[in-house]
Amino acid sequence: MAHFSGEDEAMLQAMLRQLFQSVKEKITGAPSLECAEEILLHLEETDENFHNYEFVKYLRQYICNTLGSMIEEEMEKWTADQNQGEEFGYDTVVQHVTKRTQESKEYKEMIHSLKNIMMIVVESMINKFEEDEIRSQERQKKTQKEKSSSYCTDNCSDSDSSFNQSYKFCQGKLQLILDQLDPGQPKEVRYEALQTLCSAPPSDVLNCENWTTLCEKLTVYLSDPDPVFSDRILKFYAQTFTLSPLHMTKEIYTSLAKYLELYFLSRENNIPTLSTGIDISNPNVTHLLKKIRLLNEYQKEAPSFWIRHPEKYMEEIVESTLSLLSVKHDQSHLVSQKILDPIYFLALVDTKAVWFKKWMHAYYSRTTVLRLLEKKYKSLITTAVQQCVQYFELCETMKGDEVLEHSKSCGIKQKTFYYSGQELQYIYFIHSLSLLGRLLIYTQGRKLFPIKLKTRKDSVSLTDLLVLFTQLIYRSPACPKMTSPGHLEDYSPASMATEVLCILCDQKECAIECLYNNTVIEALLQPIHNLMKGTKAAPNCSETALIHIAHILARIASVEEGLTLLLYGENMNSSEEKSPTGAHLIAQFSKKLLDEDISIFSGSEMFPVVKGAFTSVCRQIYGTCEGLQVLIPYSLHESIAKAWKKTSLLSERIPTPVEGSDSISLVSQESQNIMAWEENLLDDLLNFAATPKGLLLLQRTGAINECVTFMFNRYAKKLQISRHKKFGYGVLVTQVASTAAGAIALQNSGFINALITELWANLECGRDDVRVTHPRSTPVDPIDQSCQKDIIDRLIILNSEAKIRSLFNYEQSHIFGLRLLSVVCCDLDTLLLLEAQYQVSEMLLNAQEENTLETSESHREFIIDSLSVERNHVLVRINLIGGPMERILPPRLLEKGDEPYPWPMFSSYPLPNCYLSDCVTRSTDLKQDNDLGKLLLRFKMSDKQTAWIENCRRQFCKIMKAKPDIISGSALVELLEKFVLHLSESPSECYFPSVEYTATDANVKNENLSSVQQLGIKMTVRYGKFLSLLKDGAENDLTMVLKHCERFLKQQQASTKSPLLCLQRNYTSHDWFVSSLFIIMLGDKDKTFRFLQQFSRLLTSAFLWLPRLHISRYLPADTIESGIHPVYFCSTHYIEMLLKAEVPLVFSAFHMSGFAPSQICMQWITQCFWNYLDWIEICHYIATCVFLGPDYQVYICIAIFKHLQQDILQHTQTQDLQVFLKEEALHGFRVSDYFEYMEILEQNYRPVLLRDMRNIRVQST
């Protein structure tokens, strides 16, 4: 400010003139002042020259000079934090730096200085404009006089036209109006003066020197007994509010507020009392309400523009309002004779306190409101709390009919001319409830509590107030049902309290501080407690109240902190046995409702809605892994399925309405209700599929086909998956697709076909809706009958000219097909299947051979293009097995320079050596190591009890932490053999019974293995030879091992009548665990099979060796028929559960991506991490699970996700998380690096995991 010179002022004026001249057409074309302001506010979005304006450049430079160094310092600080291990995204850094800048002293000083500068410039421009206008008018008058003296025609405009009268207000004119408004003047003169005032531009009036005097007089004249006169003053006020800038309207508003404050404080005015009520047909009341309404309309509009003006204007408006609303009359007389305060009238015109909601929305005004409430006007909050407490006490003490009469205003929208004292009290209660609900959202608002009331000994705390709101839902009377279309809003106490509580639930910080505690939850659950005991829920608890409670509980359960509270209570680690937590009570009550085991509401038309509301709460709980664990004992899936089947039968029995019959509408309404309830139940069942174990329960109900069809119908209609679900159907579809029955259901529902059709349209048809010709998505050549008519045939196996010519975008579509093939083939079982059925390797090699140019008679060169580069990558990927350090995959992108693609292409095997890594760790004999020697020595001890087993495990952990590389080769073989032998001889360690097996090689020699298994054997031997662990002849030995395993496991299989093809034959995929073990045993088939026989008795075998439990008689019949393996419904279920607790960002990333952690973990585990980990790490994975237990399978997966956290978050942003996890090896991950972390996981979770893992088997009775 000190350096702001006259030259600076002139320069800024020139800049502003340039800006206004450029946007002149836009502003003059605006229909109103507000629209013109909006145009200026959004100028950057609409004006391409915005950043070229000199005024914009000036502002940018001003900010840079003032805050530039501070912003740079903040950026450097965050960069330093990032280097120290704190990883932040770019958006996060910008948000934090922006916040710190806006909170800084420098920023506030800059804004203050800039405002003052601009006020000087703008006022100067306005004054200059007025001077120019006056001079222009004088010139016009002079010219007009000259013209009229020289000639005059009938058609010329009179110099005293109405336009010229109202165009500019002079000081003398305003003084004349002031004189004419005097009460001593005749009525007609006063009316005319007001009419002239109303027709003049408000800005001209307000800029006159006499404006202050006029304002004072208008305020006095508001009390004029003549209604027409006072109404015209209000009309002038309304015009001023609409057309004038804030610094002018502020004066009008504050004068009106001050007038009303004095009006209510004056004992001369006949203000109604509570006993008389309000008769709005009374002229005095009508005029008072008009003034209050005008004030309220401005209150609701002001926040939209006051941020663009000096803060003092907003502060004056806020303070004048709070001062008015804090007016209290003498309370010494009886309550019934109490004179109504201003707040009653404001509540009448703005029942839900919309004005307060708008004032609290922006930080700019909220800070001022809260500061003034705390410093000067806390009584306003105190009376609001008092009003809520009084109404609740009224509900507690009065009879139901009396309270209902008191609350008749829940239908306030009815046309009425009289409000009784009781109705006014109720309207004020609703206003107070809305105001307090909005206040509690904000931290500073909550700091105003506790509140001390004169009528109570103890102060009202936040918890007390929330409990009161909660109890209002079921202790206040229900309002009569509104049938008139005019009743659009529900002002019943229960609805209003529910609305407030739901808003608080949506504010995380507020909900944690206010709602998420046992006291409030117990208050919510009190009616359910009572109903479960067989007593009445509460004096006024209706079906509607229970529905409200369920909606609040559903919102609480949809948030992590709220769900934890419902599941475990506040003291989740406490060992004290208390009453069941909220989740248990909700589940018990919901089950009773579904089973119709509760008589209080049976037969009510609202009963299905109550059932649906509470089942929806359960859905929020069992839709999570930890929630499902708590609710499993209640078998809700069975109760819901039973209710669905019953409802489905009812829907089939609905009679067809006869035309002309009076029952048509009744039948139609009944059928709609039944169909809605049926869909609701299907949705409840579908949400079991959100978790692996929940999907097992869903398949046991037999309703999976109907649920998936229901999901597809909603997907096709683009309907939201659920009220509380933030992300779409991705996770559900992924979970369902992970099982055989689920995949069939997706196929039958049309889901897969719809996805392929949509994909085809995006690839081949583009976005041109006008295009008439579309390529068909079915094969074009009749000889291709052997190919499935699907995406593989059209986009991947393009082995004919007809197929190529049929594509509009051949290269784009084929590239996509090859990328899809690359991702799909990361699952080794899928790769073997495609190789067995389609010979994809041969097809790709042939395509590469055809993509060459003959450079000489004996030499051909490959053409380097996007297709040949992608084919080369896929060929290396599908033919070379190895972890991140064992194979080299060629890039998909070309390099700059003379040699854009230095990687050799090939059209026949073997692969070029450059793709084979030189970093493969070769096994060495390290038995001489001291620690390993101690471990091997323990196996020679004769006393091998439980303590011995624990000692061996401790020694194994010690080696893994210090010298993990020595656990490999022959040392690993000896460790595994001896440890498993001793475990299998210990009855306490054996989980499965011993099975006698006497078959010899000759007995199994003639048995056939599937083509998939045969290809898997070749792949295994190729990998083993690459590792230098297998020799020639290994292929035959592994074949014999697999044949013996099939015979051995077949002895333990049960017969099943499942329609699933995978359950009608032997294990259809390749046995990757046996293949891994065969390599570990250095190709010794006898050692391998002997180990497997012993290992098969241990619980760990159920989770490492997947074929072990294929159609196994040790599993329950319904588990066998589901076709779901325990690794899926147990291991991956707990992986998701622990991931949410241990690495929550990764868990959230999966859900945002629509991809389930269980699916990728199932792939890793099924193929023993082949292609994802190096061989030494695969050995450590198997050894760790064998030595330490099957739960370590879960801990290792959690450790991997922890290791990949940053990559996962990054690929979630780039929307290719699934591709990344499937295609990329686990670079840098070593099992031994995370041993200490996994030991912590064991301490926290082992009891729960092992208990559930042991429960997979049929229990003996």
Number of helices: 63
Give, in spatial order, the strands making up the sheet with the most strands.
Answer: 1-2
Whole-number mean pLDDT: 84
Total number of beta strands? 4
The fraction of residues assigned to DSSP E strands is under 5%
**Main pleated sheet:** 2 strands, antiparallel
Helicity level, as a percent range? 55-70%
Taking Cα atoms only, what radius of gyration do you get, to the nearest Å?
40 Å
Low-confidence stretches: 85-90, 147-168, 411-415, 480-488, 768-774, 778-788
Distance between the termini: 91 Å
**How would you describe the shape?**
globular
SS class: mainly alpha
What does this structure look like?
With 1261 residues, this protein is mostly helical. The chain is 63% helix and 1% strand. It contains 63 helices and 4 strands. It has a two-stranded antiparallel ribbon with strand order 1-2. The chain has a two-stranded antiparallel ribbon with strand order 3-4. It is globular, with a radius of gyration of 40 Å. The model is unreliable at 85-90, 147-168, 411-415, 480-488, 768-774 and 778-788 (pLDDT under 50). It is found in: Cell projection, Cilium; Cytoplasm. This is Protein broad-minded. InterPro entries: BROMI_C (IPR055392), BROMI_M (IPR032735), BROMI_N (IPR055391), PHAF1/BROMI (IPR039156), Rab-GAP_TBC_sf (IPR035969). Residues 173-790 form the BROMI middle region domain.
